[in-house]
Amino acid sequence: MKMLDIQELNVRYGVVRAVLDAHLHVNDGELVVVVGANGAGKSSLLRAIAGLNKHRGQIEFAGKAISGLRAEQRVKLGLSLVPEGRHIFGRMSVLENLQVANWGSRTNSNAEIADVFARFPRLDERKHQTAATLSGGEQQMLALSRALIRQPSLLMLDEPSMGLAPKIVAQMFEIIREINAAGTSVLLIEQNARMALSIANRGYLMETGTLSGGGDARVMLDDERLHEAYFGKS
Ligand code: ATP
């Protein structure tokens, strides 16, 4: 079954066409990655799916057309976005950040917060600390936890590796892989193409608003053209 099915999606800002006739799908249980350079339109694509910007085209989520729904209605259906730059509440504590996310959750019980702390012991240790004083990696874990508390069936992540040290990036990708292995479908947007593809089932490439690919992530990892343009020297 297709968890997410997008057809002819377009996003424009005045004369700038950020997403052009995009087609993309995520099957139930898959981890799908969209790689591409800075400014290629990846964030615009994710924000359109989440209902955070104006867009045209068809978006189906779990078999239901959602293009006309507001962002919070999409979240209620089980679609969560961890935005680029994290957007946590810096002056609130870790616990308060989680409580705010929990207000809108399906059950709003303390069990969900306890689950987060069991998965991320570092957040448990720092639960009374102000979020702004967390390290970059801890802030990203908090942002991810806020999305997970809503128990999404599709988790979308916008550049989770941004600004993190390489060791923390590796941990973050491992956590994303585990979340997916536990049954949550994932759509991941990343400039860190090699690492993202190494945990993905399938991958797309975004270039100046146009999506291509959609095949096996391992095949993309071996693609010489991608090596030169997106994998860097490492
Ligand atoms: P990045 O990794 O830098 O976020 P991206 O691949 O996510 O890049 P987008 O942020 O989606 O790319 O931007 C796609 C294009 O749309 C860029 O040319 C950008 O300048 C433009 N753009 C994005 N947001 C707006 C906006 N609110 N108003 C006008 N133009 C925008």
UniProtKB/TrEMBL annotation:
Q: What is this protein called?
A: Amino acid/amide ABC transporter ATP-binding protein 2 (HAAT family)
Q: Which GO terms describe its biological process?
A: L-amino acid transport
**Which keywords appear in this protein's UniProt record, sorted alphabetically?**
Amino-acid transport, ATP-binding, Nucleotide-binding, Transport
Q: Has UniProt tagged this entry with the keyword ATP-binding?
A: yes
Protein origin, superkingdom: Bacteria
Family under the similarity heading = Belongs to the ABC transporter superfamily.
Q: Which GO terms describe its molecular function?
A: ATP binding; ATP hydrolysis activity; branched-chain amino acid transmembrane transporter activity; hydrolase activity, acting on carbon-nitrogen (but not peptide) bonds, in cyclic amides
CDD domains documented for this protein: ABC_TM1139_LivF_branched
Q: Does the keyword Oxidoreductase apply?
A: no
Q: Which InterPro entries match?
A: AAA+_ATPase (IPR003593), ABC_transporter-like_ATP-bd (IPR003439), ABC_transporter-like_CS (IPR017871), BCAA_Transport_ATP-bd_LivF (IPR052156), Dihydroorotase_CS (IPR002195), P-loop_NTPase (IPR027417)
Q: Which PROSITE patterns match?
A: ABC_TRANSPORTER_1, ABC_TRANSPORTER_2, DIHYDROOROTASE_1
**ABC transporter domain sequence ranges:** 1-233
